[in-house]
Structures are given as structure tokens and as C-alpha cells.
Amino acid sequence: MGQEALTRLKANLEKSAINENSLVKIQLELFNRQRQKLAKEKGQEIKEYLEGKSFYYNQKASNYEYEISEAVNLFTNEIQKIINSYDEIFICILKIMQNAQNEQKTCISNIAVLEGEKISETTRLEDYDGDDIKNINSIISNLQFAYIQKKINLQVIVNECDARLLWVIDNMQKDIEATYQTKELALATQDASTKQTLFKKIKNLFVGKKRYEAFLEDFKEKGLQEVQRTVNEKITYLSFLLEGILKQTDQTKDKINSMENTKTKVA
Questions:
Q1: Angstrom distance (rounded) from CA 154 to CA 105
Q2: Fewer CB atoms < 10 Å away: N or C end of the chain?
Q3: Which is more confidently placed, 172 or 32?
Q4: pTM to 2 decimals?
Q5: What CATH number is associated with residue 24?
């Protein structure tokens, strides 16, 4: 591999780095948009739901702006806890992938350097006999193969990270939706989710204010308690999941490094 080939390789590595950085930016942007969208949409959904129930109880939502806002904030805070947990996982996976990609680029660079050394040694024929040149080239080739194999093995980590990043984006939304399918939250809203009979309409003219205020309290207390339990369980699970990802990555890297050490020692 002459100087021209080495120059081309350097240019390819720089181009690869630009492409990888662009991909990382795209992934981060996609994730940020998704998390912002989820928090905003769910908060608006809860707000519209509570305002809609004020009509059911023959009340004006404008008279309960503070109470509705307080309820929305309480629930969106729980949403944010889930998002924060997924933030931590996403960033961690992204760093693992970037580290693996950087190691791959180092492997390619080392292969190029070794190839240059091989050519360099074979040109100084007066310093070595034929067997020396053959042995040197064999050692260099074995080292190059070790780096090639390491690069291939590192791709396993990159592919796993790619799949996990997509999983985070998809599963974060599923978990947030599932959080609001709790039994207590359903019970807290059950009375207000049925159609009004004429009797109820008349009744709400007299006791609607009291019933709506009771509904809001029930929604905040029973609904929120169950949501908090669900969120805490999910956060604990995600914490163990992150721990498992880190452990698995370390095991894979140890295996890759062990294989590299074995091959380079043989070389």
C-alpha cells in the first residue's frame, strides 16, 4: 500500500467519521422530537380530558384553571420521570456505539500503518535476507488479520446499539401510554365517562360543582397514586435493564479484546 493508497484511506476514514457524526445527530434529533412530542401531547390530552369533564358536571373549566393545571403538572411530572430514565439509556447506548465505531476506525488505521510497514521493510532488501522478509511480512499479516477480525467483532456491538436505540424510541411511547391504563385511574374517571341521563343532568344543576370537585380530587389522588406506583416499577425495571446492557457490553468487549490479545501474541 503506497502513499496514494494511504491518503485515500485517510480521506475515507474522515468521510466515515462525518457520516457517523451526522447519523448520531439524526438519532439524537429524532429522539428529542419524540420525547418532547410525547410530553406535550400527553399533558394536553389530560388537560382536555379534565376540561371536558367539567362540561359533564355542568361546570365551567375556566373556574377550575388552577386545579386542572395542578393535576396536569402532577401527571406530566410522572411522564417526565419515565422520559428521564429512557434519556439515560439512550445516551448510554449512543456512547457505547460511538466508542465501538471509534475503535473500528483505530483498527482500520492500524491495518493501514502495518501495510505501510510491510512495504517499507521489503524495500530494504540489503538489510534482510529472504527468510527475514518472509517472517516479517507473515507477522504483519497476522497482526492485520487480528485488527480486521476485531473490527468485524465490534460491528456486533454497533448493530446491537442501533437496534436498541430504535427500541428506546418505540418503547418509551408504549410505556407512557401503558402508564395511563391503570385500574385506579380508570375507576377515578369511570363515573364521568358514561352518558348522562336526564336525571343526572338535572342533578348536576344542583350538585355538579361538588361532584366535579370530588372528581378532580379522586383523579389526582387515586389516579396519581396508581400512576406513581406504575412509574416507580417501570423506572426500577429500566435501571436494571441499563445495568444489564452495560454488563453485556463489557462482556462482549472483554471477549473481543481477549481474542485480539490471543491473535497478536501468536503473531
A1: 11
A2: C
A3: 172
A4: 0.75
A5: 1.20.1270
